[in-house]
Amino acid sequence: MTDRIEGTTGSGDDTLDVLEEHGFGIDALTEEQRQVLKELSTEELDLILDIKHRLDEAGPEVQAHSEIAGGALF
After folding, report:
1. Tens of pLDDT, residues 1-25
2. Which of 12, 39, 41, 63 has its CA at 20 to 30 Å from residue 33's CA atom?
3. Torsion of CA 38, 13, 51, 72, to 10 degrees
4. What is the pTM of this model?
5. Contact at 8 Å (CB) between 4 and 45?
6. H helices present in 1-74, as ranges
């Protein structure tokens, strides 16, 4: 999994802080969406961070292929 920020419990405002520090656009969310994120378990937070990390790693390669192939790749 990714390197979650040490000392966080994965609950409440800590969760929002961790997500924001990892590039999630928390400011664009509704209060209801923020509440859902605040209620994530530590395991759920770790999973979201891991998925984001893997998507970020794949991003440049996928973008490069889509430019070369004219966006024909799925």
Report:
1. 444 444 445 558 899 999 999 999 9
2. 63
3. 90
4. 0.64
5. yes
6. 12-21, 31-38, 42-68
Alpha carbon distances (Å) from 64 to 36, 57, 61, 72 = 34, 13, 5, 12
Q: What separation in angstroms does the CA of 69 have from each of 14, 65, 73?
A: 42, 6, 7
- Per the structure block, which two tokens stand in for 20? 């924001």
Amino acid at 56: D
Closest by Cα among 46, 59, 62 to 2: 46
